[in-house]
Design a protein that fits this description.
- With about 240 residues, this protein is an alpha/beta fold.
- The termini are far apart.
- It is globular and about 45 Å long.
- The protein is built from seven helices and seven strands.
């Protein structure tokens, strides 16, 4: 059957790179590209690939908006064969003593609760397909001791990792696999709020002498979406230049 890939957060730098790579390699694939306030970037993809890119919008901090989007997808396109979950609030460093609960709840809604809504809607039906895939983008902060001043981000990413593994366990006997990648710092717009010094220090501390770029990451996502990954589920793959294993 033709592949129908839902990329949430598709207007991000990583989402655009992933969509472009998948579409260039598979002419029969359709991407459902979710965005929120990133419509111009999705329109550029549509201009490049035409009807093979279909746009949907939702505010993932509002669960009712996610539910409406999932209903729209089901009605317009049917059941996705693959889902890649990317959205998150931009990274911000914050001391634990100044933990912003409002921002934390919003990021939990975007990264975890929205994913739960999508899994509830689509995973049982995806599990009936001959092969289906879900991929999360977690983070290297879940590997060993995380960096300082990232308490909120770390807690959210551990919750996301737990959701991935719980879903993988539940659907392991089916054709649906659920996996994750955990990259170290990727140089994208996601880092705009933390400052150039922090980005440079991260690059200097990495064994490769640089931070990751989207091109370093999308290949593993593509693999986890492919038939070659059919015997992998519940796996979290580190993509860190050797800084974490």
């Amino acid at each position: 059957m033709p592949e129908l890939v839902l990329i949430t957060g598709a207007s991000s730098d990583l989402g655009i790179a992933l969509a472009r790579q998948l579409l260039q390699k598979n002419e029969e694939m359709t991407i459902i590209a979710h965005s929120y306030k990133g419509g111009a970037r999705i329109e550029a993809l549509i201009a490049e690939f035409g009807v093979r890119v279909q746009s949907v919008e939702a505010d993932f901090s509002d669960i009712s908006s996610v539910e409406m989007m999932s209903d729209e997808i089901g009605n317009r396109f049917g059941i996705p064969t693959q889902i890649v979950h990317l959205p998150a609030l931009r990274l911000a460093y914050e001391r634990l003593a100044k933990f912003n609960l409002e921002r934390f709840r919003r990021d939990m809604a975007i990264q975890v609760e929205a994913a739960v809504v999508l899994l509830k809607k689509f995973a049982p039906k995806m599990a009936k397909l001959p092969a289906a895939r879900v991929v999360f983008v977690v983070s290297s902060v879940t590997r060993n001791l995380p960096p300082k001043f990232m308490a909120m981000y770390t807690v959210v990413k551990y919750a996301q990792l737990g959701l991935m593994r719980a879903a993988a366990a539940e659907f392991a006997v089916t054709g649906l696999t659920v996996n994750a990648i955990s990259p170290s710092m990727i140089e994208t717009q996601f880092l705009e709020e933390i400052g150039e010094v922090a980005v440079r220090l991260s690059a200097a501390a990495n064994p490769k002498g640089r931070n990751a770029m989207p091109v370093d990451v999308v290949g593993m996502i593509e693999f986890l979406l492919s038939p070659a990954a059919s015997y992998m589920t519940g796996v979290d793959v580190a993509i860190t230049g050797g800084s974490h294993t």
